[in-house]
Specification:
Elements (H helix, E strand, L loop, with lengths): L13 H9 L37 H25 L3 H33 L10
Helix pairs in contact: 1-3, 2-3
Length: about 130
């Protein structure tokens, strides 16, 4: 595959990049931390100096988190209600805590995967510099 200048473009594997993103590591080297804090993506990798400032994750990770957590908890709520019939306050307490915990766990990992996807597909300025 070549770009406009006919210079060869090295293929970036999607699956390893997504795994590195899930681990919240740099999609290029897999060693440097992707985030500076909970959700703030670093401008450059501290290990390989890959420029990560081009990422545009925006609302995508939040939508994915809501989609996944909503589907998992809907099934769990139905199962618990049908088979165990706990009191409403017990269900509200347990599933509220579960919803918040699962959301906080998934959000940075899904954001890492979105950034890694953009990097692997050379989106938003992640293309190699000539």
């Amino acid at each position: 595959m070549t770009d406009i200048t006919n210079a060869p473009i090295h293929e970036r594997e999607l699956r390893p990049a997504l795994i590195k993103g899930w681990r919240r590591k740099c999609p290029n080297c897999g060693s440097g931390p992707l985030f500076n804090g909970y959700l703030k993506v670093r401008d450059t990798c501290t290990v390989c100096r890959e420029d990560l400032s081009h990422q545009r994750a925006d609302d995508g990770p939040a939508y994915l988190t809501i989609l996944i957590v909503g589907h998992l908890l809907a099934v769990a709520i139905h199962f618990v209600f049908v088979y165990f019939r706990p009191s409403p306050m017990t269900m509200v307490t347990i599933f509220s805590i579960g919803c918040v915990a699962l959301s906080l766990y998934l959000l940075p990992r899904l954001k890492g995967m979105v950034v890694a996807f953009q990097w692997a597909r050379r989106m938003h300025g992640f293309a190699d510099k000539p």
